[in-house]
Amino acid sequence: MKVTGPTGPTSSSGARSTKAAGGFSLSQTGGSAPATAAASASSASGVAGLSALMALQGVESATERRRRSIRRGRGLLDRLDELKLAMLGGDNDAEALERLSRSLREERPEDTPEAQNEGLSGLLDQIDLRAAVELAKAEVRRNAP
Predict the structure, then answer these.
(1) FRET label pair with 82: which of 15, 102, 121, 134, CA 20 to 30 Å apart?
(2) Backbone dihedral angles phi then psi of residue 108, each to the nearest 5 degrees
(3) What pLDDT, in 10s, does the model give residues 93-136?
(4) What phi-psi label fits residue 2: left (phi over 0), alpha (psi between -120 and 50 degrees) or beta?
(5) For residue 76, what pLDDT is reported?
(6) 39 with 32: CB under 8 angstroms?
(7) Bridge partner list, 3
(8) How high is the pLDDT of residue 44?
């Protein structure tokens, strides 16, 4: 029997006995076929198990989506506050506008119909709209003569 890597043991042609220390012998006739089948089944199930694990990691629960939506909304509100403080302080608001624009471009998690919270969804829509209005106003100021 010869081990050739991750596929498991393979048998050489013909039946022969292998002698080990102590006089113990192991016959190779017919015994390698089940071992090879078991090794190939084991490697296939390992791949299937890994695929299933990767698929489960990609699944996001409704609670996780809600948390991510809330975190995104709070981030946008923080960027709007930064913009307000920059404008009130007379500072250059270009950096604050860029951060607000980046935050607004972040993908908003979509709610599934069964886990949809209308109040949260409406509130996040209003935050997105407010951020878009501020960016549009800044664009008008920038293009004004």
Answers:
(1) 121
(2) -90, 125
(3) 888 889 989 888 888 777 655 445 778 888 999 999 999 999 99
(4) beta
(5) 92
(6) no
(7) 9
(8) 55
Tell which residue, 81, 60, 59, has the closest CA to residue 130.
Answer: 81
CA distance 130 to 31: 73
Decide: 65 and 110 in contact? Cβ < 8 Å.
Answer: yes
At 87, list the tokens: 């404008």
- The pTM of this model reads 0.54
Residue with tokens 């501020």: 134
Q: Is the dihedral of CA 111, 113, 118, 122 positive or negative?
A: positive
3-state percent helix, strand, coil for the chain, nearest multiple of 5: 65, 5, 30
pLDDT in tens, 32-70: 555 555 555 555 556 667 666 666 666 667 788 888 889
How many Cα atoms sit within 13 Å of 31 on the Cβ side? Answer: 9
